[in-house]
Amino acid sequence: MSILLNAEWLKDNLLDSNVVVLDIRSPREYSSAHIPNSKLVPYDKILDFNADSSYFDIAPKEKIEELLSILGVKNDSVLVICGDRGGTTASRLFWSLTYYGLKVKYLDLSFSKWMSIGYPVTDKVEAINNTDFVITQSKLDFKVDHEYVLSKLDDSGSILLDTRSPDEFNGIIAAGPKSGRIPNSKNFPWELAVGDDGYIFKTIENLNNLFEKFGITKDKEIICYCQVGERASHTFVALQLCEYNNVKIYDRSFADWSTRDNLPVES
Amino acid sequence: MQQQSKKLDLIGQVCPWPVIFTLKELKTLEDGEVLEVIVDHLPSTINIPSAVKKDGHEVLSSEETDEGVFKISIKNNNN
pTM for the complete prediction? Predict the structure, then answer.
């Protein structure tokens, strides 16, 4: 069953109280217009970070439970993620929830596109009945750390996928104190997987062709990373859409790797 | 005395550019000068403050000034 949810289906099922749309845009964007009955997810609530960190961690289970309780999510709710602007933040929300074993759908269109084709929007914020949401599922094992990545550097069964721009990959520019890449990485700029005309992803056929062109094959373990885990999130979901079954995400990414003195960097 | 401020419009820029352009711009400022960075990429509201604090600069404020548009004010400290 596809991760993506057809926008037309959602439009026809907006009155279904089991469907909970999670909107990961900014507070003002949400206040101005949103899908009826959708709930705003404050971006910082899905992260765990402090001012001294170079990287973001996923929010702990308790923080996610608290967030979903405040948003009125029940155990039988159908969760649908709605994003915009290429879908990196929405993709991060997607894997953050699936990491904790939750079943989540991803709206195939951006909010901007939803609105531009005349699907219903509102500026009304409905009162929410809080729930006591408890995550009962086991965590999935797709999130990896620097030690795991280090162990895979020379593993021919794994592909380290750097989803940053070619200039970052080649060490020409840097969004942190150190330039370069994790050794033996392959560059796949994340934007390549973004769909046309307001679609969050390219079609499955186009994605498969694209991944094939880059030598990203289904018999390998694919480990996605970028600078802080945003762009890698989009590629991570795109690979799942194409039924790559062994995909990992190094969510602390190069921001973490490059600040550890004992880890190799190449450019 | 009122601090001089300079504006850096990064509307439409996504990772990694908001952080890169902000750090680059701060290098051109005098000590104590304030840079107002305008972004509409949500992660940048966390990335930029984190990156500039690590470089020793001071984040004076961060606020959403329009729908999805944020202003981050940074006091330059080029030691």
Answer: 0.92
